[in-house]
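Dear colleagues,

I hope this message finds you well. In preparation for our joint manuscript, I am sending the Holliday junction DNA helicase (Stenotrophomonas acidaminiphila) sequence together with its predicted structure, so that both groups work from identical material. I would be grateful if you could confirm receipt.
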Amino acid sequence: MIRPFLSCVLLLASAPLLASSFAGSTAGTSAGASSKGSSSSSGDDKVIQAAREEAAGFVASDGRQRGARLQAALLHLRQRDAGAAQASDMQLARAILAR
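The corresponding structure tokens are as follows:
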């Protein structure tokens, strides 16, 4: 009876240590990743990555479901790339998912 109780206590006591270790490692990775690229490309990636879930919903609903993040990403892509200006919303949404 004491052994399972002690195991639970040790597990609960170590949880904050594991969480802080994880947070430190991901924070270091994020900071390192953002310093590698230029500020404009990291901003581009954030806009596109934020729209991935909405792009999936847009494609799955055959264009009936459209969110604000997807709209922002479509506009962003069209402003950045002349080829994207000629593409349909569906083509761009699929391209976002392919990234």
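For the figure legend, we might mention the following. Helices lie at 2-36, 39-50, 52-60, 68-80, 82-86, 89-98. The chain has six helices and no strands.

With kind regards,
E.M.
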